[in-house]
Amino acid sequence: MNMEFNEKLDKIQKLENDWDGHGSPPFSKTTIETTRKFLNLLCQGFTVYSVAPTSDDSILVKLTTNNDKLIMLEIEENDIGIAVEINEKGEKYTYFDVQLK
Description:
By secondary structure, this protein is an alpha+beta fold. It has one domain. It contains 2 helices and 5 strands. A hairpin with a 5-residue loop joins strand 2 and strand 3. Helix 1 (3-13) runs antiparallel to helix 2. The chain is globular, with a radius of gyration of 14 Å.
């Protein structure tokens, strides 16, 4: 995985309680490590261009495919939400929820 994204995940892991000013909790080590493992797998076939924290204890990852389709992943401790672009203009997405436990 890109060193920049490893560093970004390290910073996200250090966020403290109320990091967004709206009472959001710090991220669990499990969420960070699940994201790190998943990104390592994805980097073998996709380009990761954004990793960002969300206020609901998840991490949002944006990737592109070889044909420039956008895929967004919302990774939480026990599941991963996947939004996949389904048209050329980037206007419609289909959403999948994958339970990890």
